[in-house]
Design brief:
530 residues, alpha/beta, five-stranded parallel β-sheet, 22 helices, elongated
Length: 530
C-alpha cells in the first residue's frame, strides 16, 4: 500500500458532477498510488486551486464554460504553474484539439464514455514515469552527495584539485571567515552497554543534520581507518548562526546543548582558527585535530614515562628532541624557535593526522619525563591536568602558534620550579600567610603570583605536605577561626561568617556542619551551657 507522501495528487476538472463522481469510482485510485485531492467545474476554478496546491495529474474535460480544457493547459504551460501531467477527456474527437493538447504536453486524450482499462493504462503509465523520475533524482542526489563528500574530504585534507575546490564553493553556503569544528561523542559505559556506540553515533549525526537544516551539507563524517565513523566535522561560517547568535562560541554552545537534549549524549567540540576561505580550511582542520589530540591525553592516558612512544624513521622525532633539549637548557630563544617549528610541522597539511597525533603523544611523553627528572615523586595525572589547564585556559578549545609557544614557555617555568623550590619551606611560609590573611580572597593563583610559583605545582605541594587540597585547607582554617569567635564573642553568626571570609551564610553553615556535625547556633548554645 502506498503511503500518503508517496501518492500522486489528482485534480479532476469537469462541469458535470456525475462525471466527476464517476471518475472517483471507476478505478481504485488508492491501489494505483493516487489520491483525488480536489475538484473544479471549469478552468478558472482549476487555476485558483493550482495557485495554492501542487498536483501530479489533472483529469480535465475539454468543453467547459468560462475556460475550457485547452485554454487551461495553455495557461498552465505559459505561466509555468505546474509540472502536472494532463489527461484530456472528451465526448468527441477533433484533430485540432488533439494537436493543441500535444503541443502543450498533454499526456493522453481519452474519449467518453471513458473505459476503465483505457484510464488504468494511462494512470499506470504516468505512475511508472514518476517512479523512474524519482529514481533518477535519487540516484543523482546520491551521486552528488557522494561526490561532494569526496571533494570536501580532499579540501579539508589540503590536497584538493581546482575542480574539486570550485565544486565545494558552488555547493556550500559560505560567508565570511570559516572555521573547522571537530565534534566527538563523549563515550560512557552506559552508552556502550545499553544502546550501542555505533547506533548512537548515527542518531547524533542525524540530529545534527536536522539542527543544521539547509546547511546540513556543512556536516562531514570523519572516519578512522577501516571506515569506522568516529566523529564529525562542521564547516562553520556566518550563515550558520544568522542573526540569532553573536559569536561562533555562542552558536556552538547552543548546538551542543540541543544535541544533548535530543540524544542524551554529550558531544565535545574542538575549534580550529578562522581562515579567510574554503581553500585554507585544511589549516583550521589540523588545528582542531591538534586540540582534540591534546584533550585526548589530558587525563594521563598516554604511555608511562618509564615506557616510550616510538615514531617511524621518517617522522619528525628530531624536531621534538630539539625542543626538549632547549627546555632542558631553559634557553628561551631556542624554546620559542623550536616550538614554532614543531607547531608548523604538526599542522602541516602534508602530515597525516594520525601521525600528528603520535607526535603530540611523544611530545607529552617527553614533557612528563622532564618533570620526573626534576621531582621523582611528581604525580603524572596532576601534570596532565596542568597541561590541559594551560592549553584550554581561554575557555574556547582553540589553538594557534602563539598559544602553543606560550604553553611550552609556561611548562618550562613549571619545570624550573619543580627543581628549585624548597617545597616544605615554601608550604610553611604560605601556611603562615593563610593563618594571617585567611579572610581575604585567597586562591592558588593569587598565592602563586605572590610567591612566584606555578599555581598547579602549588596545588600539588598542598596535597603532598598537608594531605588535602588547598581549598579544603583554607576552609578548615576559616571554620576553626569561626568556631573560636562563636565560642568566645557575642557577634552574630552572619557577622562572623563575613569576618572569616564567607559571603554566603548558607555556604558557611554547610561547611561548619561538615566540620563540627552541628550548626553554628547549636555549637554556640552547647558551649554557653557548659
Amino acid at each position: 500500500m502506498w503511503t500518503d507522501n508517496q501518492k500522486l495528487r489528482v485534480l479532476i476538472v469537469d462541469d458535470e458532477p456525475y462525471i466527476r463522481q464517476g471518475l472517483h469510482t471507476l478505478i481504485d485510485w488508492d491501489a494505483e498510488g493516487y489520491s483525488i485531492s480536489d475538484e473544479a467545474e471549469n478552468g478558472v476554478e482549476a487555476i485558483a486551486l493550482m495557485e495554492k496546491n501542487t498536483y501530479d495529474l489533472v483529469l480535465t474535460d475539454i468543453k467547459m464554460p468560462e475556460m475550457d480544457g485547452v485554454e487551461l493547459i495553455a495557461y498552465v504551460y505559459e505561466h509555468r504553474m505546474s509540472q502536472a501531467d494532463f489527461i484530456f477527456l472528451s465526448g468527441y474527437y477533433e484533430f485540432s484539439y488533439a494537436k493543441t493538447a500535444i503541443r502543450y504536453g498533454c499526456f493522453d486524450y481519452i474519449l467518453k464514455p471513458i473505459q476503465k482499462e483505457e484510464l488504468l493504462s494511462a494512470v499506470r503509465s504516468i505512475r511508472r514515469k514518476h517512479e523512474a523520475e524519482t529514481n533518477r533524482n535519487k540516484n543523482k542526489a546520491a551521486f552528488e552527495t557522494a561526490y561532494l563528500e569526496d571533494c570536501l574530504e580532499h579540501v579539508i585534507r589540503g590536497n584538493a584539485g581546482d575542480a574539486q575546490l570550485r565544486y565545494v564553493q558552488e555547493k556550500l553556503q559560505l560567508a565570511g571567515d570559516i572555521i573547522y569544528i571537530y565534534c566527538k561523542v563523549v563515550e560512557n559505559d552506559k552508552m556502550s552497554r545499553e544502546r550501542g556506540m555505533k547506533a548512537q553515533r548515527g542518531r547524533i549525526f542525524a540530529e545534527a543534520e536536522v539542527l543544521l537544516g539547509e546547511c546540513r551539507t556543512h556536516l562531514l563524517k570523519d572516519k578512522a581507518k577501516g571506515g569506522v565513523e568516529c566523529g564529525f566535522g562542521i564547516l562553520y561560517s556566518q550563515v550558520l548562526p544568522g542573526e540569532r547568535f553573536s559569536s561562533e562560541k555562542e552558536w556552538l554552545e547552543w548546538f551542543l546543548d540541543k544535541l544533548y537534549e535530543r540524544t542524551g549524549s554529550r558531544v565535545a567540540a574542538y575549534m580550529g582558527n578562522k581562515v579567510g576561505g574554503i581553500d585554507l580550511i585544511s589549516e583550521s582542520y589540523r588545528e582542531a585535530m591538534m586540540m582534540y589530540s591534546l584533550q585526548a591525553y589530558k587525563k594521563g592516558d598516554i604511555s608511562s614515562a618509564k615506557g616510550g612512544v616510538e615514531l617511524e624513521k621518517d617522522s619528525y622525532k628530531k624536531e621534538i628532541d630539539e625542543l626538549i633539549r632547549s627546555i632542558e637548557l631553559f634557553d628561551s630563544f631556542k624554546i620559542k624557535q623550536n616550538a614554532r617549528k614543531l607547531y608548523v610541522i604538526i599542522t602541516d597539511k602534508t602530515v597525516d593526522v594520525e601521525m600528528a597525533n603520535r607526535y603530540i603523544q611523544y611530545l607529552l611523553f617527553r614533557l612528563l619525563g622532564l618533570a620526573y627528572q626534576q621531582d621523582a615523586e611528581v604525580d603524572q595525572e596532576e601534570i596532565m591536568r596542568y597541561i590541559h589547564h594551560i592549553v584550554f585556559s581561554s575557555g574556547v578549545e582553540q589553538l594557534n602558534i602563539l598559544k602553543f609557544q606560550k604553553f611550552i614557555e609556561e611548562y618550562t617555568t613549571y619545570l624550573a620550579q619543580l627543581g628549585n623550590v624548597s617545597a616544605s619551606g615554601m608550604i610553611s611560609t604560605i601556611e603562615k600567610d593563610i593563618e594571617k590573611n585567611f579572610a581575604e580572597n585567597l586562591s592558588l593563583k593569587s598565592l602563586g603570583e605572590k610567591y612566584f610559583i606555578n599555581s598547579a605545582y602549588l596545588g600539588q605541594l598542598f596535597k603532598r605536605y598537608c594531605g588535602r587540597s588547598f581549598k579544603n585547607y583554607l576552609n578548615d582554617v576559616r571554620i576553626k577561626k569561626a568556631a573560636e569567635m562563636i565560642r568566645y564573642t557575642d557577634k552574630k553568626i552572619y557577622e562572623i561568617a563575613e569576618e572569616v571570609g564567607y559571603h554566603k551564610k548558607e555556604y558557611f553553615n554547610t561547611k561548619f556542619y561538615e566540620t563540627y556535625g552541628e550548626t553554628p547556633s547549636s555549637f554556640r548554645k552547647r558551649y554557653r551551657n557548659i
